[in-house]
Amino acid sequence: MKPYNKNLKQASRDLRNNMTDAEKLLWPRLRNKQILGLQFYRQKPILNFIVDFYCPAANLVIECDGGQHFTKEGLEADQIRDKALAQLGLKVLRFDNVQVMKQIDDVVEVVYQYCLQKSP
């Protein structure tokens, strides 16, 4: 089990209730064990972060990145976050919101192929 910050529980709940358009489009493709029977969670607190999507069986985090992630500060924060998650053995797949909105099938295929490599 990954470190869980119970102080982020309400923030996580709020994010689930206010997902971005990209997250709303991707979530129906991940939920209900549609990819290789793997369970995904949305807006999951890990360490001091809330990741967009998390699959414990594949040690996978999926992030849908909006414009704020492409500023100097955003890129630096993401690097720190990705490094901390990698130290827990997690792989972070990042997708630009525009990519999710316009190429959802390609995004799902990347996730599927990664999970396929990680499944026993």
TrEMBL record:
It comes from the Bacteria. GO terms for molecular function: endonuclease activity. It comes from Acinetobacter faecalis. This is Endonuclease domain-containing protein. PANTHER family: BLL0828 PROTEIN. InterPro entries: DUF559, Endonuclease_DUF559_bact, Restrct_endonuc-II-like. Residues 7-114 form the DUF559 domain. Keywords: Endonuclease, Hydrolase, Nuclease.
